[in-house]
Automatic annotation (TrEMBL):
The lineage of its organism: Bacteria, Pseudomonadati, Pseudomonadota, Alphaproteobacteria, Rhodobacterales. Belongs to the SurE nucleotidase family. It is found in: Cytoplasm. It comes from Pseudoruegeria aquimaris. Nucleotidase that shows phosphatase activity on nucleoside 5'-monophosphates. SUPFAM superfamilies: SurE-like. Pfam families: SurE. The keyword Disulfide bond does not apply. Its EC number is 3.1.3.5. Its main location: cytoplasm. This is 5'-nucleotidase SurE. Keywords: Cytoplasm, Hydrolase, Metal-binding, Nucleotide-binding. Binds 1 divalent metal cation per subunit. PANTHER family: 5'-NUCLEOTIDASE SURE (PTHR30457), 5'_3'-NUCLEOTIDASE SURE (PTHR30457:SF12). One of its GO terms (molecular function) is metal ion binding.
Amino acid sequence: MRILITNDDGINAPGLAVLAAIAEEIAGPDGEVWTVAPAFEQSGVGHCISYTHPTMIAELGPRRYAAEGSPADCVLAGVYHVLADAPPDLVLSGVNRGNNAAENTLYSGTIGGAMEAALQGLPAIALSQFFGPENAALDNPFEAAAAHGAEVVRRILGAMPAQVPDGDYRLFYNVNFPPVPATGVKGIRTAAQGLRSGTRFSVEPHTAPSGRKFLWVRGGPQHTPTAPGTDAAANLEGYVSVTPMRADLTAHDALAAMRERIDR
């Protein structure tokens, strides 16, 4: 198996090393793991692509590249440049430092990398490690992802549909490991994307020594549980959450009512 890995925390992020180990286990001794990751941190860029300027790419070692762009840029670089001779069989994005559950999903560059792979018709999985009091101070805060990541990926691969209808958006998968040590993981739960009540991004103003004003974007509380059966709720209960997603933002449940009121 040929696997392409990327992330949004940057080429030197510890979570990428965890993902490389997961990918090596999945690929097996006869497989290949290729890395194309951002040269610098790209957290929060979502599905951004560098449409108006070029992306510099550098080979850092065997099957290891850094690109000055977003995770989606890195997937494009991997598919059409680094692996132009033959596309990867699987794209893995992560392991993100922090959860990409609930509303975080919409901002995440980790998710953006997996989404771009899906739009290219490739199987794709995004992986993120939830942090909290039980694991943030561990020698390896990615312990849960490192211990359980390969098994979760195998289970998802086994559950993927064999075929996707022509013209349909490809599915991709969002995995969040709970904020506990590896031994504290209770299992795996398939879950819908949730929404943390009252948790929103905001800005905080600061004044530089020069007198100029700047705004820092800040997040909200991450340990607010989402509705039962959704991603962050499962994570906070000690479960790995797996959320199937589709690169389609249509609110299908609202279409019929809108047609009745708007169409002429």
